[in-house]
Amino acid sequence: MGNSSDSSNNDKTSCAMLKRLDRHNWSTWKKRFENVITAKGYEEIMNNDWIKVNNKTPEYRKMLAWCMNKLFSAVKEELHPVLLANNSNIYAAMDALANACGEKSILTLCNKLFTMINCTYFPGLSLSQHLNI
User: Fold this and answer.
1) Which of 131, 101, 126 is nearest to 115 (CA)?
2) How far apart are the C-alpha atoms of 133 and 125, rounded to whole Å?
3) How distant is the alpha carbon of residue 105 from its chain centre?
């Protein structure tokens, strides 16, 4: 007889879900995706030096196919064109995704903010002049 406390989804509670990448969650998504690759044992595919040496091997092709399939399923459709332009190299695909999601812009903005917060004030100079000192 059925018990109302029984759950048919008990076997799925331990399965971790990877939230799909959009243009706003790069910093948290990247580490989680890298953990998925590491859990599979494919962490070498994120090393550009390893890719240069092994890009013609069957092992590389197998790893690349698995990682790219996983990547397409973990990225929202709006970013699929970025992946299609870089589908032969996971390292390049991840770099292109970082650019598309504004990682470089955020780093530049944070560096400018740090410079502004830590600059010495000189009366009579504009803010842009202070940042260029």
Assistant:
1) 131
2) 10
3) 15
